[in-house]
């Protein structure tokens, strides 16, 4: 029993050490670009017909396998395995940062090759942007995208600034007429921008000054036009109000003229003759003895007294215009003859 156990333990140790001899203890670092495809090629791949099984793992998860010269398993949307064992990963994302292991067996089920890849995904750098100001005598180079970018600034082909950062600034002290190159790069990408700068005088930017002056002039013109517009509108509103007041006053005066005749200042209002009703036909004037007589005036006969009063009413006031009556003439009053004194006393 003890002999059997010793023989079995020896066999397991031999198998273990023979297998470890085929495994490489060094991982292969592979850099991949975000949103791009990548192929994991197997170095030292055996070129013989004894290869029977190729297995790929991501961590401890099986992702692709090729067996007996045909594909046994793969995820077509993300992974694809070729006949020579190369694994293709499509459209790299940050979740693909991981270790990938390939195991190769021969037709007898023996390890032939074992390789491990350390895949690292990076974002490619963007084209650097260069900006400058002749007033502040400064130049800035900036990169907006990229994993761990390195910037280098060159003046007429000579390096003047560099560093692992996304923004670098350069300041000059004399008049400038030179060419600048700015380069951004990381392990998987590289981009460069070039500009030619000419600043005639320190602290003077003619384009900026011209823009400020032009903007100020436009603002002044706008303010003047606005003031003129407001003034014109006020004048129009004032003229409109005056016209409305004049029309209203004229309308009121017309209504008053229609209600009463024109009168001269200081004169006594006179009623028009047409508004005075004629005396009734049977009207009999009072006897001369019943009315007080003005001293020094001779009393008039009754018929003449009535006619005199009507003529006095119809006569216009001095200094006024006679009122012209429209329509047919008014009837004249009938004058009663004076009865004899004896008949009056008898009655």
Brief digest:
With 347 residues, this protein is an alpha+beta fold. It has four helices and 16 strands. It is 27% helix and 30% strand.
Describe the protein.
- The chain is an alpha+beta fold and 347 residues long.
- Helix content is 27%, strand content 30%.
- It is built from four helices and 16 strands.
- A six-stranded mixed sheet has the order 1-9-8-3-4-5, with no helix packed on it.
- It starts with a helix and ends with a helix.
- Residues 1-25, 264-275, 282-290, 292-297, 319-325 and 343-347 have low confidence and may be disordered.
Layout: helices, strands, pairs:
Elements: H1 2-20, E1 28-33, E2 38-40, E3 51-58, E4 61-67, E5 70-74, E6 79-81, E7 87-89, E8 98-106, E9 111-122, E10 129-133, E11 138-142, E12 150-155, E13 158-163, E14 167-171, E15 176-185, E16 190-199, H2 206-259, H3 302-314, H4 341-346
Defining traits:
alpha+beta; 16 strands; elongated; 4 helices; 347 residues
Q: Distance N terminus to C terminus? A: 191 Å
Class from helix and strand fractions: alpha+beta
> In sequence order, what are the helices and strands, one letter per element?
HEEEEEEEEEEEEEEEEHHH
- Portion of residues in beta strands equals 25-35%
Main sheet specs: 6 strands, mixed
């Amino acid at each position: 029993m003890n002999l059997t156990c010793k023989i079995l333990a020896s066999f397991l140790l031999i198998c273990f050490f023979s297998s470890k001899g085929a495994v490489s203890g060094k991982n292969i670092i592979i850099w991949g670009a975000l949103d791009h495809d990548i192929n994991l090629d197997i170095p030292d791949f055996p070129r013989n017909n004894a290869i029977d099984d190729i297995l790929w793992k991501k961590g401890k998860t099986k992702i692709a396998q090729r067996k007996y010269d045909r594909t046994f398993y793969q995820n077509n949307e993300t992974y694809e395995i070729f006949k020579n064992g190369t694994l293709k990963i499509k459209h790299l994302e940050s979740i693909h940062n991981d270790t990938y292991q390939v195991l190769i067996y021969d037709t007898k089920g023996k390890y032939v090759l074992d390789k491990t890849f350390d895949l690292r995904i990076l974002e490619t750098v963007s084209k650097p942007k260069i900006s400058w100001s002749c007033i502040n005598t400064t130049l800035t180079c900036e990169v907006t995208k990229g994993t761990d970018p390195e910037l280098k600034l060159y003046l007429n082909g000579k390096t003047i600034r560099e560093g692992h950062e996304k923004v670098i600034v350069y300041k000059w002290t004399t008049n400038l007429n030179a060419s600048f190159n700015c380069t951004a790069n990381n392990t998987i990408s590289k981009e460069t921008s070039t500009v030619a700068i000419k600043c005639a005088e320190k602290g003077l930017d003619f384009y900026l000054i011209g823009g400020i002056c032009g903007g100020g002039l436009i603002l002044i013109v706008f303010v003047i036009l606005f003031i003129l517009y407001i003034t014109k509108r006020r004048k129009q509103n004032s003229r409109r109000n005056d016209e409305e007041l004049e029309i209203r006053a004229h309308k009121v005066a017309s209504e008053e003229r229609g209600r009463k005749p024109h009168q001269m200042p200081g004169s006594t209002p006179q009623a028009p003759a047409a508004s005075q009703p004629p005396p009734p036909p049977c009207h009999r004037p009072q006897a001369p003895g019943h009315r007080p007589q003005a001293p020094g005036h001779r009393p008039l006969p009754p018929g003449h007294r009535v006619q005199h009063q009507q003529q006095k009413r119809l006569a216009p006031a001095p200094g006024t215009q006679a009122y012209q009556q429209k329509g047919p003439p008014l009837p004249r009053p009938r004058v009663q003859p004076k009865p004899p004194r004896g008949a009056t006393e008898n009655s």
